[in-house]
Amino acid sequence: MRRFGLALAAWVTGAGVLLAQQVGDFNAPAKAKGYVVYAAEQQAVAAGKPGMLELRFQVVDGFHVNSHTPKSELLIATQVTLQPAEGVKAGALVYPAGTAYSFSFDPKDKLDVYSGAFTVKVPVVATAGAHTVDGSLRYQACDHAACYPPKTLPVQLVFMAK
Amino acid sequence: MKRATLVVGLMVVGISLMLWAGWHNLRERRMAMQKAEENHVVLVPDKGGAAGAASSDGEDRPKLRGKLAPGFTLVTLDGKKVSLSDYKGRAVLVNFWATWCAPCKIEMPWFEQLRTQYAGQGFEILGVVDDSDAGKDVITKVTQKTGVTYPILLSDSKVGAAYGGLDYLPMSFYVDKDGVVVEETAGLGSKDEIEANIKKTIAAGGSGAGKSTAGGL
Fold first, then answer.
1. A9 and A49 inside one domain
2. Same-domain check for residues A82 and A43
3. Is pLDDT of B157 > 90?
4. Where do the domains of chain B lie?
5. Which residue in chain B has the smallest CA separation from A146?
6. Nearest-CA neighbor of B98 among B32, B171, B38?
7. How many CB pairs under 8 A join A and B?
8. Which end of chain A is less crowded, N or C, counting CB atoms within 10 A of the terminal residue's CB?
9. Are A113 and A57 in a shared domain?
10. A68 and A19, same structural domain?
């Protein structure tokens, strides 16, 4: 009986360690592939009811992009555009507030930017089932001294309505 | 003993099922994540570049310093043709900018002031707007706001490539009297740095070697 207990304890411990390794591996931070990363994840909302999805972006250290409401009309706002998708009704996107930023040689001129993590929220009502909504992100990025041409890149919302 | 064995066996089965369910759940989540990660949006400058591109020593673009400035003929906002060769014998700052470029608009009033200051020594500035498709109204709005009166030229598809690709802005090329690029800078520098480069450019050249700018001038 004692031998059984020891064997059981060893088996449970070993399995626990294995499981812990799996969890640790899963939570390892994804390697950044550029200067802003779309941290995509499978999402879920209640079918037929108003729900909220999220587009999570991460601006890599040292860079910033204009917010959705830059202080000058001449600057290019960060903007997500979603295509119509069957069974999905998307509402007006909710952008986060930006933070003040100024270039070192002109501290008085404050820009409104996103840096680090920022999330764009997408209100939806969807029929039951799996959904994919295609869209695009338009942005214009700068570092502490120079700016990069504006770009438009695809985004995709993948979610389940249960 | 048999009963104890049975209980232990049931415990093993139960715990195994729990662990399997946990592992299965993890695997599902990981697959979902992998699928979602295929949708990553990556914002990358066309040619790499780490934070702090304000360097005149970029390794990923041609270095024009010490070489003849590529020639060009571009059109101003009011339709007048201007060539770099028109300024032969004068020190010229060729500054590439865009309406969406905030640091560009910081240095433009400095350029205007320095142009006035050094005009007597033959110094001139040519501003080349890289996003010509922004429209003349928007471009004019920027020049009025920044107080710029030096010539603003509309970029074409060739001039940017000739000057190294313009992966980021602002970019400036200081061309001496002989058409040689004395200095090139990318990103916003200080007004003092700009003035030092202007002085250096005015002082350079004038050898009378009869050099001409590259590109058929």
1. no
2. yes
3. no
4. 1-44, 73-203
5. B187
6. B171
7. 159
8. N
9. yes
10. no
Which candidate, B114, B115, B135, places its Cα nearest to that of B124? Answer: B115
User: CA-CA distances (angstroms) from residue A143 to A40, A104, B29, B49?
Assistant: 24, 11, 35, 10
Mark whether A58 and A134 lie in a shared domain: yes
Chain A interface, best mutation among B27, B40, B60, B136, by max A CB count within 10 A:
B40
0.85 surpassed by complex ipTM: no
The helix (run of H) or strand (run of E) holding residue A123 is strand A117-126
- Arch. (CATH architecture) of B73-203: 3-Layer(aba) Sandwich (3.40)
CATH number at residue A71: 2.60.40.1250
Structural domain containing residue A145: 32-161
| Residues in Cβ contact with B2 at an 8 Å cutoff, skipping those fewer than 6 apart | none
How close A109 gets to chain B, by Cα (Å)? 9
Regarding whether A94 and A43 lie in a shared domain, the answer is yes
Q: Determine whether the interchain pair B53/A145 forms a contact, defined as Cβ–Cβ distance below 8 Å.
A: yes
d(CA B89, nearest CA chain A) in Å: 31
Q: Which of A5, A37, A42 sits opposite B40 (nearest CB)?
A: A37
The reply to whether residue A154 touches residue B40, judged by beta carbons under 8 angstroms, is no
Q: In what order do the strands lie in the sheet with A117-126?
A: A36-38, A51-59, A117-126, A88-90
* B171 contacts B181 by C-beta, under 8 angstroms: no
The predicted structure's pLDDT at residue A157: 94
Q: A49 or A37: whose pLDDT is higher?
A: A49
